[in-house]
Amino acid sequence: MSTSRKTSNPRKAAGAVELAGVIPYLVSPVHPRTGRVLSPVLARLCRDLIRQGVHGLSPLGSTGEFAYLTAEQRLAVVETVVQASAGQVPVIPGVASCTTADAVAQARAYEKLGADGILAILEAYFPVDDEGVYQYFKAIADAVSVPVTLYTNPNFQRSDLTLPVIDRLSRIPNIRYIKDASFNTGRLLTIIEKVEGRMQVFAASAHIPTAVMMIGGVGWMAGPACLVPKQSVELYDLCRAGKWTEAMALQRRLWRINQVFAKYNLAACVKGGLQLQGYAVGDPLAPQAPLSEQGREDVKAVLASLA
Predict the structure, then answer these.
(1) CA atoms of 273 and 271, how far apart (whole Å)
(2) Residue 250 near residue 270 (C-beta atoms within 8 A)
């Protein structure tokens, strides 16, 4: 897929990109032998999610297996999603690297392809101190004109964003959002209080979205939303309307999918679930294992209960 053409993006040109709502982390369908990105499958998924009412699309997140893709594959994924979205919803691809220079290059390339924002992720083999973490994210923000969402996940990252670093980064004009994937909802409230409106907070699969919306969050970025987009959007709408009793009733039902996903590999669960729904997205990239037969039965049962 060509990456030389800059995709027209009227929303970005108008300077009106505001992120909120349900933003699914997309899978990355890759042919197991050729390594070619299965663009028609990914494009179909994007179009279907938009029809179900999602508020954005985020390729190359954790569910998108960014750590297992080549640079060429990542570019093909982003271009496919930008073209499929056709400006209907914002596209916020993940940028992740162990080096600042590579992360900056990725961010610039994705903006050139037409991305509406960047989800900035820090990979680290050796630990990075607070100043190094700050400079990494600052460099990404300085390299692009689109809004940047910080991604923090202390359960997987060697070097996490501390609260003082988050506070400093919130003062950079185009760092406007943070997606925190810790299991600590209290940390989210602390972040909301600390940044004083300079950044908005997204929840992750690890959090209960209704609780995050109640304390001031603006939505959630999560892989499971690929499988239950309609119900996820309904939950968001209930939260926005302040219908907390109805929201919690739906939240309790939807939490079943999080409980199943906690037992298995995230990408395997989402790809396995999408296969059950008729999307030929394939299995996770090796050396990750595909969803087990028991896993498929568990995911199938929970999806049936939520249909």
Answers:
(1) 5
(2) no
Structure tokens at 73: 């594959």
What's the per-residue H, E or C state across 79-95? HHHHHHHCCCCCECCEE
Tell me which H or E stretch contains 293.
Answer: helix 293-306
Distance CA 101, CA 17 (A): 26
Lookup: tokens for 70: 């080549």
Tell me the helix, strand and coil percentages in the chain, rounded to 5: 50, 10, 40
205, with CB counted inside 10 A (0-12, 13-18, 19+), is buried
pLDDT digits (tens, 9 = 90+) for 173-209: 999 999 988 888 889 999 999 999 999 999 988 889 9
Q: How far apart are CA 61 and CA 157, in angstroms?
A: 13
Domains, the chain, in order of start with CATH, read: 18-247 (3.20.20.70)
- The DSSP string of 223-265 is GGGGTSHHHHHHHHHHHHTT-HHHHHHHHHHHHHHHHHHTTS-
Tens digits of residue pLDDT in 248-274: 999 999 999 999 988 888 899 999 999
